[in-house]
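Practice record 12: protein with nickel (II) ion.
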Amino acid sequence: MLLHIPDVLTAEQVAHCRQKLDQADWVDGRVTAGHQSAQAKDNMQLPEDHPAARELGDLIVTALQDSPLFMAAALPLKVFPPLFNRYQGGQSFGTHIDNAIRQVTGTPHRVRTDLSATLFLAQPDEYDGGELAVEDTYGLHTVKLPAGHLILYPASSLHHVRPVTRGARLASFFWIQSMVRDDGQRTLLFDLDMAIQRVSGELPDHPSTVQLTGVYHNLLRRWADA
Ligand code: NI
């Protein structure tokens, strides 16, 4: 499932991120790439331990916890500390798949990457190109969202970032280990959750709402690791 989550950050939060990122020293993005993706990757990144990366990463993780849509769709168990990248001057990231397991640098913590997330931090009219293109069973999807919006997609998908031919594309990217590792099961739970919320809004006293909520939780109990 590809899911667009609007307004994860407010305009003020985006402006704060931009100000910090403009002042930061960037490094070659190949530092966090695996062997195959290092050959495909051409961008700049903030070092993982950069104070701005940590501060803005915390801001993003807090914003995600306040997003009911993100929580319902990702069912997060662990969120990898958000990283930041910049593409400009024709830079791109060729077709690759994200590493399945990521170690949080300097810690014993590992995150299984069930979901990948990109949070856009530049407005679409600030740059040309730079679309995120994700291949799934239904074909190729290209994504370019307003600043502060997030795209969530299965980390198991092949994807690439098209060359940025004008301006600069700034984004945060990170991974989520979900309580439900299987994308199909997680998508069913999300669809059921959304349907229950609609029905309970329109028919708040209907006894089926309680029954369906029970089905949701019993499926979650069956499929989730916590
Ligand atoms: Ni990737």
